[in-house]
Every structure is written in C-alpha cells, then in structure tokens.
Hints:
GO terms for molecular function: histone deacetylase activity. Keywords: Acetoin catabolism. The protein is an alpha/beta fold. It has a single domain (6-358), classed as Histone deacetylase domain (Arginase, Chain A, 3-Layer(aba) Sandwich), CATH 3.40.800. It is 35% helix and 9% strand. Strands 1-2-7-6-3-4-5 form a seven-stranded parallel β-sheet, sandwiched between helices. Helix 6 links the parallel strand 3 (160-164) and strand 4. It is globular and about 55 Å long.
Amino acid sequence: MGKEAAVxxxxxxxxxxxxxxxxxxxVRLDLTVRLARxxxxxxxxxxxxxxxxxxxEIERVHEPSYLNAVRAAPMAxxxxxxxxxxxxxxxxxxxxxxxxxxxGGSLAAARKIAAGEADRxxxxxxxxxxxxxxxxxxxxxxxxxAVAISWLLDHGFDRIAYLDTDVHHGxxxxxxxxxxxxxxxxxxxxxxxxxxPGTGRPAELGGEGAExxxxxxxxxxxxxxxxxxxxxxxTVPSLLRAFGPQLLVTQCGVDTHRxxxxxxxxxxxxxxxxxxxxxxxxxxxxxxxxxxxxxGGGYELLRVVPRSxxxxxxxxxxxxxxxxxxxxxxxxxxxxxxxxxxPLPVSMSDDxxxxxxxxxxxxDTPVDxxxxxxxxxxxxxxxxxxxxxxx
Length: 391
C-alpha cells in the first residue's frame, strides 16, 4: 500500500438505531471498534469524522419527496409509506439525520481516495445497499453505497466496480446503475429462491447499452468457505480484469456466517478474512490499488461481526491479525456485560480451513452449477469463454 489508508469512524454512527430487538443493532459497530482498538489495529490511525451528507448529495440516487418523507416520519409514526414504519424499517428519532451521517461517512471515504490522500478507505457503518430511489428496504433508509459511487463518477472516475459479498442480493446498488455501463455491479449472495429480496438471478445482466455490467452469482443454502471462495474465484477476478476498473468498491456484509440468524450460508470468520485478503489483492491487481470498503449486514452481534470486521479493518490497513490471536480480556469482559449468558469465542478464528480447490470446468456440485450459470450468462458479454476455466 503506497499511502496510509483512511478509516472513517465516529461514535455518532451509533445513532442509526432501529430500536428494540431489531436485528440491525448498532452495538455491532461499537464492539468492532472496541475490538480493533484492543488489538492495536487502530494504533496511530487518525480516524476521519464524517459530516452528514447534504440533500443534494443524497438526491444523487433518491427522490426529493422521499427525503421529505424520511424527515417527516418520526412525527408521523408508523405506516407512513415509502417503506417506512414497517417491521424491517421502523421509524426512529432523527432518522434522516442518522441516515445522512451514514451516507456522509461513505462519501468521506470516497473523497479521501478521489483527492489522492489515500488509496484505500473504509467505513464499517456504511453498506446500506437495499435502499431504493423512493423507498426504504431491508433495514436501509439511504443507499450510501450508490451515493458514493455516483459522487465518484463525477470526481475523476469513469469505471468503477462494485462488489457485494453480503448474503443478500445488492439490489439497490444494482438498480441504481443498471443502465450505466461505467459501473460493474457484482453480487455474490444466497440463491434468491431461498432468501429475501428474491432478486439477483444470473439473467439480470444490465439494461440496454449496459449489458454485462450487472453480475449475479447466486449460491445454494449451506455454501461454506471453500465452496464460496471457489465460486468467487471462478467468476469475479476474470470479470474485474476484463472490465478494468479504476476503483473497487466493496460491500462487506458478514451475514454469510454460519451462525447468522437471518440467512443460510455457512462461512466462518476465517472465510471472511480470506475474502478481505483476496479483495485487497484484486484492488491492487485490477484497480490501481484503490479500494473503498463498506460494512453491510451481519446479525450475530457479539460472536461474529466484531471479529470479522476487525479483520476487515486490519486488512485495509495492512495490519493483518493472526487468526490465532486471543480475544483481549477487557473486550471479552465488556461484551459479556451485554449478553451475560451468551458464550463468546476465544480467538480471532473459528478454527476453519478456508483453502479450496480451484474450479476446473466441472459441474459436480450445486455450487459448480451456479458458477456455470453465471459464467454462461455474462462471460461472453466481456469477451470471455464461459467453458474455459482459464478465463
């Protein structure tokens, strides 16, 4: 890494709080930063405090009427339309302000890269990839990923690859750029026949004039580290090389973990660490080293998210944490006060082996079939041979 990476963080991010027993609890962010600090990952790092995004910035991807609805929602109560006031997207105090700050965090990370002050930047509070132009969806009020990409397209970049490793399809970002050939959106997710939002099939290829810039790899329930990485390697690197992005934007949801309560993939913290290291390599190889990393889903709040995203922060900063590193006693003590009867892991590893056998063109497993479905749908549009494992 040529320049020091930028880490965007401020405790005010914790204000994006959907309340009660909602799965998207901001404690996951607090515990991540506490763990990263306890392990020395953030030692000497000057954290970037964001400003809230302005209306003009948010309206790059959202309708003004929707912003008005978000502002009014806390006074209007439940069922106010625009996807607000639902079980997934309950109304909460200062909802616009908290959501605008999340967008501002992702924009702050984007600005650091665009200004040449950093080659890499990360905001774990970002990654709200489901929000649509005129409505909230999937715990997401404003789509910070899409706003950041839109801003980057007007500030020195005209080829951006967006790679989404959340268990759910990155539908909001795909929708925002479906007709834009400057943005390659790649989503690796659980098969939409088995998981919300029900989109993200290989046949979703991009709109007229942008065919091939929407890529979806839909994996069967139960897919673990080795098969996930095998499928990723068989599809994503070739597409990135063919597209030639100037910058890689990644949504790094960790709800792919085997303990996540909302989905059915079976990755481990070790698998997540392997993914981040591969993303770093691909940014260096295909995107001039430029990498904007955002958070996303993840609902095992104590055992999974803090460890996985500490690995993400460490990877972005080139301060990789040994998986066998014990969890600091002070962090364990604090986490234990949040859920006294919840067993905590002892190290930064799930003791899993993420090594995998490369795909060689075979169709022996459901994962191999998923790989071939995606390759046959999109590879020819990039001049690649779907049947040749070398492509």
